[in-house]
């Protein structure tokens, strides 16, 4: 390819004096077809409206140019581009023990509520140590309490399951 690149390759539109081809098909600021004009005449009309002449379809014969505010056009393009990005779902974890106090559980529930409001998943883990293994029902009560408190903002994705020294449950935002 030569040293001149077409706008599709570079990703940029030619505006105002960068447009060298004559004649061009012109679309007015209101969207009306103005017909095929000489480039300098199209430039005069754009300047009279205090706007820019922007090449929107360079491959057509003759090329299509539009009279518009180029800065506003670029802003709307970038806004449209950012709109397409989806939130990356993260998995957050809150850990409690069967002997964890009520207030401490409330603090962790509020943190989990914050995670869920940001569209993240939450894993609730109850960890058993030493003799606590003999009282798994205490851990089950704690996890059921946490699930009940978060019921309004989440749905249970994976029910509580006991794995060795842990009881694990996954919550997803509603």
Summary of the model, kept short:
This protein is an alpha/beta fold and 174 residues long. The chain has five helices and eight strands, in the order αββαββαβαβαββ. A hairpin with a 5-residue loop joins strand 1 and strand 2 (33-37).
Q: Identify the CATH architecture of the largest domain.
A: 2-Layer Sandwich
Helix content: 25-40%
Q: What is the N-to-C succession of helices and strands?
A: HEEHEEHEHEHEE
Number of H/I helices: 5
Structural class: alpha/beta
User: Can you list the strand order of the major beta sheet?
Assistant: 2-1-4-3
> Any idea of the CATH class of the largest domain?
Alpha Beta
On the 0 to 100 scale, the average pLDDT is 88
- State the major sheet: 4 strands, mixed
Which helices and strands, and how do they pair?
Layout (H helix, E strand, L loop, with lengths): L6 H4 L13 E4 L5 E5 L1 H10 L3 E6 L6 E5 L1 H14 L7 E6 L5 H16 L3 E7 L8 H14 L4 E10 L2 E8 L1
Parallel strand pairs: 1-4, 5-6
Antiparallel strand pairs: 1-2, 3-4, 6-8, 7-8
């Amino acid at each position: 390819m030569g040293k001149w690149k077409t706008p599709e390759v570079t990703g940029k539109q030619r505006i105002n004096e960068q447009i060298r081809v004559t004649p061009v098909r012109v679309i007015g600021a209101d969207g009306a077809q103005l017909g095929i004009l000489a480039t300098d005449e199209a430039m005069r009309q754009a300047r009279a409206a205090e706007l820019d002449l922007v090449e929107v379809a360079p491959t057509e014969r003759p090329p299509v140019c539009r009279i518009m505010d180029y800065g506003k056009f670029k802003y709307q393009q970038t806004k449209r581009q950012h709109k397409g990005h989806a939130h990356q779902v993260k998995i957050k974890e809150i850990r409690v023990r069967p002997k964890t106090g009520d207030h401490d559980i409330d603090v962790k529930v509020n943190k989990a509520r914050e995670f869920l409001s940001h569209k993240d998943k939450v894993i609730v883990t109850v960890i058993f140590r030493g003799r606590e293994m003999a009282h798994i029902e205490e851990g089950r009560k704690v996890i059921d309490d946490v699930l009940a408190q978060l019921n309004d903002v989440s749905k249970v994705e994976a029910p509580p399951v006991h794995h060795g020294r842990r009881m694990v449950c996954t919550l997803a935002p509603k």
